[in-house]
Input
Amino acid sequence: MNDNDTKNIGDEFVEEDENSKTEDEKALEGLYDLVLPPGVPYKLIMEVMDTFNLEVTTRKCAVKTIDVEDDNLLTLRGDLDSVNNAHDYIFKKMSEKYNYKK
Output
């Protein structure tokens, strides 16, 4: 769009196409994050990483606590099936230890 073209409201919001994605965004396509709440034992995290072939990253997430600050929380990143299976596995292991009820 040139400076001399007629501008309409909303023209500044051009739809993104495949070419406008950055390399980081392309690398993350098809990956999902499972945000781990504080208190998950590190041994369980390591076991889940190895079992389901996930990688650990951090993510800034707002946590509803007394002081509302963004925390860097651990996340497990991988494909959707692995992340869902890891979620179920973590819930099962934590339920056995702490008697969670659904």
